Amino acid sequence: MSGPFPFLVVAPLAFASSLVLTPILVRVARFTGYLDHPDPRKSHAEPTPLLGGVAVAGALVLAAILARSFFSTSSALPRPGFFIGAALSLGMGLLDDRRPMPPLGKLAGQLAAALCLVLWGPEVDWIRANPFALIGAILGVVALLNAINFLDAMDGIVGATIPITAAGFVAIGLLYGAPVDLVLAWGLVGAVAGFLVYNAPPARIFLGDAGSHLLGFALAALALQSLQGRPTLAHLSAVALLLAYPLFDVIFVIAVRLAGGRPVYVGGVDHTTHRLGRRFGRWGALGIVAIAVTLNVCMGILIWGLSDPQPVIAAVLISGLGYAIFGVYLRRIGPTP
Q1: What is the pLDDT of residues 117-169, one digit of tens each?
Q2: pTM for the complete prediction?
């Protein structure tokens, strides 16, 4: 599809599809018992539907079909590994939402989805040709699945983070010709923004593990797609910056739990968003996270096309120093009681 913004039509189609499908999935969740029940470490006081991830997945598929059928969009379908891995991520999450899986079982499902994406998804030859890069990519996908799952601890946070991050991948595709699947990227912008209408505080529906795993997998797919071709310091650094906040949150939570002698896989109220919420309220936390993600995404876009390593390294160091200071500040706030 030609024009200055190819495949842009997918975003409003995904947004409208999500607006329509999400209330339907609210009813389905209540009817089938897919509900997140209150407990001391959760902020909601009433059982809340959990099938938001299914609504987002349906919106992505429906938008792509509508764009191809009525707006003559033509793009290559993702490779089979993407569809299989996405189905595994969504299905594993649905199982976990119904009956919590043991940590090793969940990790096995995440590894299976990561293997599908790295081995049979985007053809990133330099990763597949190097055993160390291959292992690093698989572990990176698993880390991103967990990062988005960890980040989904407060109303609207992931719903705001994903559209901004996906828009960053759209930007490097349009500005620099990076090999990004614009249908998927535009679709994430629209579908998750539409879901955010119902997930903003106070949330009427949650993504659930199904949704957080699916969205983490989709971001991992965009990241791998963008790294096809010769790897450069600028490209690797830009992708890291685009994904910086979810990775910061999961590293922060793991470090805090290890320091406190607690299992990293047991949920709690020690996430960055919980701490921000204690100090600034839910809407304040949402705004701060959205600003942090936007700043990182802008930095990633700016450095993508650079050949001089010095500004690239400077951008990474500035971001890293900023998150280190932010982490110290959050540590002093303490978790939500």
Answers
A1: 999 999 999 999 999 999 999 999 999 999 999 999 899 999 999 999 999 99
A2: 0.94
Q: What angle do CA 217, 47, 27 make, to 5 degrees?
A: 75
Which phi-psi region, left, alpha or beta, contains residue 261 (left: φ > 0; alpha: ψ -120 to 50)? Answer: left
